[in-house]
Amino acid sequence: xxxxxxxxxxxIRKKKKQYPDFQEELDRQVEKILKNPLSGEPKKGALKGxxxxxxxxxxxxxxxxxxxxxxxxxxxxYTFGAHEGFYEELERYVK
Length: 95
Hints:
Radius of gyration: 13 Å
CATH class: Alpha Beta
Helix content: 25-40%
Strand content: 25-35%
Order of helices and strands: EHHEEEEH
CATH superfamily: RelE-like
CATH architecture: 2-Layer Sandwich
């Protein structure tokens, strides 16, 4: 069963502000996650159930957070960004 992406409002806002080449890379990374949803690193504690996919773009490491719901067939995309402040922002959004 394939998963359908569900995108959070913060993800959409942040993506619109990015350059087109980064937006394309982000789309490629989402496709990779859709092909292998368990590839991301599972988080613990307050972020339990969320996975983080790491990728590099122009020598910068980016993190993309998502959650899978296999019963509903949904891949929930939360947010993305550089490592600095990423987990704090994600924790605020998830609560």
